[in-house]
Amino acid sequence: MTVRTPGTPSSKIDRMTPSSTPGGGPRIKEEKIVVTVRLRPLSKKEQVVKDQVAWECIDDQTIVYKPPSQERSITPMSHTYDKVFGPSSITETVYEEGVKNVALSALMGINATIFAYGQTSSGKTYTMRGITEKAVNDIYRHILDTPERDFTIRISGLEIYNENVRDLLNLDSGRNLKLLDDPEKGTMVEKLVEERAKDDKHLRNLISVCEAQRQVGETALNDTSSRSHQIIRLTIESSLRDNSGCVRSLVASLNLVDLAGSERASQTNTDGARLREGCHINLSLMTLTTVIRKLSVGKRSGHIPYRDSKLTRILQHSLGGNARTAIICTLSPALSHVEQSRNTLSFATRAKEVTNNAQVNMVVSDKQLVKHLQKEVARLEAELRTPDPSVHSGSEVPTSEKDLKIQEMEMEIEELRRQRDLAQFQVEELQRKVQEEQRVQLESPYKVKKCLSFSGPSPLKPAKDPIHSGKTRNTMGRQSIRQSLATPFTLMSEIRKLEHLQEQLGDEANRALEVLQKEVACHRLGNQDAAETIAKLQAEIREMRSIRSIAKEVLVGEVVVASNRSVGANLKEEITRLHSQGSTIADLEEQLENVQKSLDKLVLALPSNNQQTNNESNSKQNEHSKKKMLPLGNSANLQHLIRTPCSPMLSSRKLHESEMENKDPENDVTSSNETFNRSEKAIPTKSEDGDASSREGTPCFQRSNSVNMRKMQKMFQNAAEENVRSIRAYVTELKERVAKLQYQKQLLVCQVLELEANEAAGYEIEDENTCELQGPQVSWHETFLEQRQQIIDLWDQCQVSIIHRTQFYLLFKGDSADQIYMEVELRRLTWLQQHFAELGSASPSPHGDKAAMSLSSSMKALRREREFLAKRLITRLTAEERDTLYMKWDVPIDGKHRKLQFINKLWTDPRDFKHVQESAEIVAKLVGFCESGNVSKEMFELNFALPSDKRPWFLGWEPISNLIHL
Ligand SMILES: Nc1ncnc2c1ncn2[C@@H]1O[C@H](COP(=O)(O)OP(=O)(O)OP(=O)(O)O)[C@@H](O)[C@H]1O
C-alpha cells in the first residue's frame, strides 16, 4: 500500500478555499504558521547540579531571558510568539490554547500539521503525546456530534532514523522505505502501511504501537531520548450520510510530528551509535531550519531545499504549502542550556514568518459516484416495477418532478464527464508541451534560455573575470541575485572557457620554467640538483600540455561555443572530461610547489648568502641578508619579472615603461635584455681574471681581488638574484591562479549538480525573462554573515577539518571579492551534507576508501587532526600560555589528557560567535597560519587537496567531483 503526502486517498481531488466548505469552515487563504513556546520546569538532573532558571514567561505571549543575578543590570531580551506556556502550564492548556484549532482543521478537509521542535530533553515527546491524546479525543467527539457525516480514519506511522524511513506499523517492510515523487500527489512513502481505525480505542492502540517501535536511547541529558523523527499521520475522510445530492467528500491529513532533539555531543556525552544518530538528527534539523529560514523571507527567495532531507521532503506541504501548521517549540529553563534555547527561539521567530496556503480538499470518488448512481437507478427501477398505489390516488410525485430529477442527474453526469474530458485534455496538452520542449532543446540549444534559481545569492564576479563577465545581471541595486548561467548550454560554454584558462596557465608555467632554466644556465647559480629538477619539471609540464585535448575553437569572452556536439546529452561528459583534468591541475599545483622549493634552494645557494653566512661577524650585513631571505610578497615582486628576457609576464602584464627607466642600476632597473647581456658578458670577464674558471659552480666574483671587478660582480649577482626571486614570485602567482581556477571549476561542478538535481526533481525552470528575484533587498554584508553562519553550522555538521575552518574563517571576512569563495564553500558543504545523509542510507561503497568518504571517515580524520594539534600545543605555546588557556576553557590543569581535552573543546559550538573566533585564533596559532603572512585567498589551499596529500588536515576533505566519480 502506498500513502501520499498529504494523504488524499481518492481519485479526484477538488481544492477550494475553506470559505466554500459545506460545513462553513473558517475562511483561510494564506495563514502564517502558528508558533507557540513551552517552557518546562527544571528537571531533576538539572536541580541536582543546581542549575539556574534562565527564562521567564512574563505573559501569555512573551518569554524573556532572565540573566543570573550578577547580570541583572542587563535589560532582559524578550521574545514574542502566538502563545507562550510557562513551567506550570499543563499539556491540556497547550493543546486548547495553542494548537487545537489547527488540529481540528483536518475534520474540515484541511491538511494540518503539528510538530514539536526543541533541544534534546526539552519536552517534545512529553508534549506531543499529550497533544495526540487530546486531538484523538476531540476527533471522536466531533464524529459523535456530527451524525450526518460518515467518517473514515486511517493511520500510518513512520520514523526517520539515521535518514532511513521505517514503517512503525509494519517493521517487516524494511529498514529504508523509498520516497517517491509524484508531481500531482507529492512525496509518497512506498509500501507504507495505512490501517483503518475501527474506533478510538483501536486508534489509540495503533498509536501506541508506533510509539513502542520508535528508536529510543539513553543520553546524558535524557534517559529515553528519541533518536528519530516520528510522524504519525491520521487521514480523515468524511462524506454526508445522506448523499442523494452530494457526491463529494472531504479528506485531509493530520500530521503529528515529534522531532528528535537537536543536541551537542559535548552535552549529551554521546559516542558510537548515539553520536552517529546525533549527527543525522542535527543534519536533518539543519535542513529544516534552512527551509524555514528561506520560507520566512518569502516564497520567492529562490530554491527551497526541501529535498536536502527526508524530513523536509515528507513535510513539504506542511512547510509553506497546502496545510495549516502549528509548531510547539519546547525549552529547558536551565542556564546551562541557554545557547540551545536561544537557537530554538531563533527557529521559532523565523517560523512565525512562514506563510502557508491551506485549502479544503474535496474528493469526488468515481466509486462513490457510481455507487450513488447505481442506487438512484435501482430506486427508479423499483418504482417502475411496483407502481405506487398512491399514484392512482393522486398523491404520487408528479411525473414532471421525476423527469426533472432525472434531468438533473443527467446534467450532473454530463458535467462530470466534461470535467473528466477537460482534465484529460489538460494532461495531454501538458505532455505535448513537455515533448515539444525536449525536442526544441535537443534540436536548437541556442533558442533555449532558462535559468535556475539557486539557494542564496550567487557569486558575483568582477567584470574582468572571464567566467562570469556578462553572466550575472545587475539587479538594480538588489543584492540578492539569481544566477542565470545554469543551462546545460551555458555551463558547457563556461567549461570550455575554463579549459582555455587552464591551458593558458600551463603555458605560462612552462614559460616561467624556461626563463628559470636559462637563469640557471647563464649564471650557474644554485646547485646541479636544482637545475636538474627544474629541467625535469619542465619536461613533465610539456608532456602534460601535449596530452591535454583542448577544443581549439573556443572563443573566450563570447557565449558562442564552436562545438558540433548536442548540448544536453554532453554536459555530463563535459564535466567528466573537465574533472579528468582535475588531476592535471593538481599536478600543476604540485609541480609549481616543487619549483618553488627548488627556487628556495637556489636563493639559499646564491653567492651573497654564502658570503654572508661566512661572514657572521658582520652583523649589519647579516641582518641585510636575513631581510633578503624573507619570503617575498607576491604582488610587490611581480613587476621585477618583467626584467627577465623571457618573462611570461611580458605577454600578460602591461608595463609602465617610465617606472622602469628611472630605476637605480644597483637594483637592476634596466630592461631584461640588458640584464641578460650583462650577465653573459660578465662571465668571460670573470674567467679572464684567471681565478674563477677553474672551479665550476663556485661564484667567481668571490675570488676577485679587483675592486672594479667586485663591483661588477656584485651588480651581476644582484641582477641574478633578483631574477630568481622574480621568477619565484611569479610561480607563486601562478599557483594562486591555478587555485582560483580550481574554485571556478568546483563552482561549475556544483552548478551542474544543482541543475541535475533540480531537473530530476522536476522543479520548475523559469524563463530567463522572469527569473530575477523580487525578494527584499539584502546587503552583501548581511548575506555574508548569514552565509558564514550557515558554513560554520555545516562545518560542524559535516565534521570538517578545524584547520580548514580556521583558515577559511580568518581569510574570508566579508570582502566583496569573497563572494565566490563563500558560494563555493556553501555549495560544497551542502552537497557534502546531502552526500553524508544519502550514505547513511546506503550500503558501503564498492569504490574503496577514497569513494567511501563518509561522516565517520570525516570524524576519524578530525580526531587525528585534533591529536596532531594537541601535540603542537607543546611546541607552539609556552607552559604559561597553556595553563591560561586550560583555565579559561575549563580544562583541569593537572588532568591526564588535558592537551587533547582542550583541543577537543575547540570549534564545538558553531552558534557561539566568541567561541568560534577564539577557536580560530588558537588553531591559527598552533598551525602558524597567522605567522606566514603570505597566504592569500586564492592560495587557500585546504580546499582541493587530494587524499594523497600527507598533511593531516587534508584528510577527509575532497572536491565534490572526486566524491561523485565524475
Ligand atoms: N512540561 C513538562 N513538565 C514536566 N516534565 C516534563 C515536561 N516536559 C518534559 N518533561 C520531562 O522531561 C524529560 C524529557 O522530556 P522528553 O523526553 O519529552 O524530551 P524530548 O525533548 O522529547 O527529548 P529527546 O529529544 O531527547 O527525545 C522527561 O522525563 C519528561 O517527563
From TrEMBL:
<feature type="binding site">
    <location>
        <begin position="118"/>
        <end position="125"/>
    </location>
    <ligand>
        <name>ATP</name>
    </ligand>
</feature>
<keyword id="KW-0547">Nucleotide-binding</keyword>
<dbReference type="InterPro" id="IPR036961">
    <property type="entry name" value="Kinesin_motor_dom_sf"/>
</dbReference>
<feature type="domain" description="Kinesin motor">
    <location>
        <begin position="32"/>
        <end position="354"/>
    </location>
</feature>
<dbReference type="Pfam" id="PF00225">
    <property type="entry name" value="Kinesin"/>
</dbReference>
<dbReference type="GO" id="GO:0007018">
    <property type="term" value="P:microtubule-based movement"/>
</dbReference>
<feature type="compositionally biased region" description="Basic and acidic residues">
    <location>
        <begin position="677"/>
        <end position="694"/>
    </location>
</feature>
<feature type="compositionally biased region" description="Polar residues">
    <location>
        <begin position="1"/>
        <end position="21"/>
    </location>
</feature>
<dbReference type="InterPro" id="IPR019821">
    <property type="entry name" value="Kinesin_motor_CS"/>
</dbReference>
<feature type="region of interest" description="Disordered">
    <location>
        <begin position="453"/>
        <end position="477"/>
    </location>
</feature>
<dbReference type="InterPro" id="IPR021881">
    <property type="entry name" value="NACK_C"/>
</dbReference>
<dbReference type="GO" id="GO:0008017">
    <property type="term" value="F:microtubule binding"/>
</dbReference>
<feature type="compositionally biased region" description="Basic and acidic residues">
    <location>
        <begin position="654"/>
        <end position="666"/>
    </location>
</feature>
<dbReference type="InterPro" id="IPR027417">
    <property type="entry name" value="P-loop_NTPase"/>
</dbReference>
<comment type="similarity">
    <text>Belongs to the TRAFAC class myosin-kinesin ATPase superfamily. Kinesin family. KIN-7 subfamily.</text>
</comment>
<dbReference type="GO" id="GO:0003777">
    <property type="term" value="F:microtubule motor activity"/>
</dbReference>
<dbReference type="GO" id="GO:0005874">
    <property type="term" value="C:microtubule"/>
</dbReference>
<dbReference type="GO" id="GO:0005524">
    <property type="term" value="F:ATP binding"/>
</dbReference>
<feature type="region of interest" description="Disordered">
    <location>
        <begin position="654"/>
        <end position="705"/>
    </location>
</feature>
<keyword id="KW-0175">Coiled coil</keyword>
<feature type="coiled-coil region">
    <location>
        <begin position="578"/>
        <end position="605"/>
    </location>
</feature>
<protein>
    <recommendedName>
        <fullName>Kinesin-like protein</fullName>
    </recommendedName>
</protein>
<keyword id="KW-0067">ATP-binding</keyword>
<keyword id="KW-0493">Microtubule</keyword>
<dbReference type="Pfam" id="PF11995">
    <property type="entry name" value="DUF3490"/>
</dbReference>
<dbReference type="InterPro" id="IPR027640">
    <property type="entry name" value="Kinesin-like_fam"/>
</dbReference>
<keyword id="KW-0505">Motor protein</keyword>
<dbReference type="InterPro" id="IPR001752">
    <property type="entry name" value="Kinesin_motor_dom"/>
</dbReference>
<feature type="region of interest" description="Disordered">
    <location>
        <begin position="1"/>
        <end position="29"/>
    </location>
</feature>
<feature type="coiled-coil region">
    <location>
        <begin position="363"/>
        <end position="440"/>
    </location>
</feature>
